[in-house]
């Protein structure tokens, strides 16, 4: 199935720049939306100076409903590593920015509002919509593994040939792939965007976060200025790269960058170290849970998703998801409550539990095992079945794979803008091992057969993309449609990419309640 939507390579940058009076030089990260609620919304931005900014919000009729000055705070956790200094002229990185976070209150549920942030000589205007309480329809998008870094420009990912041995790279670089993906997402005007981990390549490297915000609230696109982001922690958010790898202290510092940028609803645990690691969003008829599956207990056991992380995250607080843990008990409470209150419940975390990718093998060291396996998270599947979860969204193996386990739909949607892998097990698997996923329903690498006309790809193949989820009510019954969208490169006869098209894999799912 495909839906034509050409011309997405329009002047998105020009549209952004037109929003400014006096230029964007005052802003390091443009205003973006966080923590939506029926009566509130958080608007965050980063500036070069410590001067307060002003946020004004108006209702659709033009009446002013909010006016407040920000209280900027030096973003000390956004420092550059010493290993990044060679990337800057004379080894001097930009000065630390100031973060502004303003909570807008007393809104009406499900209503549209205009807002303007005035920072120095810059006026930035956009719109948002408060969360509904009883909406008849909801649209949201999920992807994972954007893994932004400056080095993505000019870097084309490997593109394994199905049932072939030809060494190939993808048709465009990772920067362009992610940009086009976001353009198509923005054109669909979803209520929110969920990112199931690995937002950046290296969580401890500030340049990679700078790149993420260029795509989402900066010079290349400002999609997060109008559409809230719900992020999950992935293994790369725990990774400090040359600054310490997955070492405990380094991992803690890397995650602090994630927590600096994002504000999510309180999870009620009373543990500040758990902030933004796992949380719940209620949006009209749905509940959306975000789980932190980036490390399990006991350490370096069959229940651990990352053998490279030590026994805590640098703050002395374990983030286990296994039975008996704080997070497991929280998950069960939220699922039980959502079953009573919501039409559909969705869950996201990073490590996909059912996969033929490199992390689809059991946890462990040695032949046929993996030190960053997603299999330990299968421990949560009985909870999802007991409380009627509709779908679980993940990433990690950087492919489009759909599995069905006892009626629950599991997705690896790690095709946001980085890798486009082939399988490691099963048919065409790189290891030659039997499939590690008996529950597979669709794998783009195999099921979306490539059709070529000379040098031109006509249809099929594995590409960058996302899931679009539409929830609607009709005649008293509810349904969810999950559409696996891929961004297809239109090519000329010489094999050059000249445009893009929104298409849907032949794996659309409809769930009725």
Automatic annotation (TrEMBL):
UniProt keywords, alphabetically: Signal
Signal listed as a keyword: yes
GO molecular function: acid phosphatase activity; metal ion binding
Domain Calcineurin-like phosphoesterase: 174-397
InterPro entries: Calcineurin-like_PHP, Metallo-depent_PP-like, PAPs-like, Purple_acid_Pase-like_N
Protein name per its UniProtKB record: Calcineurin-like phosphoesterase
């Amino acid at each position: 199935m495909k839906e034509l939507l050409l011309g997405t390579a329009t002047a998105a940058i020009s549209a952004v720049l037109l929003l400014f009076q006096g230029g964007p030089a005052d802003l390091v990260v443009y205003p973006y939306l966080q923590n939506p609620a029926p009566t509130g919304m958080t608007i965050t931005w980063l500036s070069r100076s410590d001067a307060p900014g002003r946020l004004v919000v108006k209702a659709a009729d033009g009446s002013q409903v909010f006016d407040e000055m920000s209280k900027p705070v030096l973003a000390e956790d956004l420092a550059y590593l010493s290993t990044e200094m060679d990337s800057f002229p004379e080894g001097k990185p930009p000065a630390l920015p100031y973060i502004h976070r303003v909570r807008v209150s007393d809104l009406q549920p499900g209503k549209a509002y205009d807002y303007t942030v005035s920072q120095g000589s810059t006026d930035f205007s956009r719109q948002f919509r408060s969360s509904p309480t009883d909406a008849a329809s909801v649209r949201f998008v999920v992807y994972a593994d954007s893994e932004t870094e400056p080095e993505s420009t000019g870097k084309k990912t490997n593109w394994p040939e199905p049932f072939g041995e030809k060494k190939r790279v993808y048709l465009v670089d990772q920067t362009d792939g992610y940009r086009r993906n976001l353009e198509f997402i923005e054109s669909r005007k979803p209520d929110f965007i969920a990112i199931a981990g690995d937002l950046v390549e290296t969580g401890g490297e500030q340049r990679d976060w700078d790149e993420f915000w260029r795509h989402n609230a900066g010079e290349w696109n400002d999609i997060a200025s109008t559409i809230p982001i719900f992020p999950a922690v992935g293994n790369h958010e725990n990774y400090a790269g040359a600054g310490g790898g997955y070492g405990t202290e380094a991992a803690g510092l890397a995650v602090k960058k994630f927590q600096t940028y994002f504000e999510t609803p309180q999870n009620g645990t009373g543990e500040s170290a758990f902030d933004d690691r796992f949380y719940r969003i209620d949006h009209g008829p749905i509940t959306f849970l975000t789980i932190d599956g980036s490390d399990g207990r006991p350490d370096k056991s069959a229940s651990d998703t990352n053998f490279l992380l030590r026994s805590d995250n640098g703050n002395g607080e374990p983030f286990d998801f296994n039975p008996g843990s704080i997070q497991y008990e929280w998950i069960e409470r939220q699922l039980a409550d959502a079953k009573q209150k919501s039409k559909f419940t969705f869950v996201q975390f990073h490590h996909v539990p059912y996969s033929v990718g490199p992390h689809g093998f059991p946890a462990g060291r040695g032949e046929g095992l993996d030190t960053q396996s997603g299999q330990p998270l299968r421990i949560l599947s009985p909870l999802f079945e007991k409380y009627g979860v509709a779908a679980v969204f993940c990433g990690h193996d950087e492919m489009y794979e759909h599995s069905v386990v006892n009626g629950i739909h599991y997705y690896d949607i790690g095709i946001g803008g980085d890798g486009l892998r082939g399988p490691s097990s099963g048919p065409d698997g790189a290891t030659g091992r039997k499939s590690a996923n008996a529950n597979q329903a669709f794998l783009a690498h195999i099921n979306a057969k490539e059709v070529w006309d000379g040098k031109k790809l006509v249809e099929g193949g594995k590409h960058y993309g996302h899931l679009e989820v539409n929830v609607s009510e009709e005649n008293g019954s509810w349904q969810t449609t999950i559409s696996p969208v891929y961004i297809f490169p239109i090519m000329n006869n010489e094999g050059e990419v000249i445009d893009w098209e929104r298409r849907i894999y032949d794996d659309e799912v409809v769930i009725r309640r």
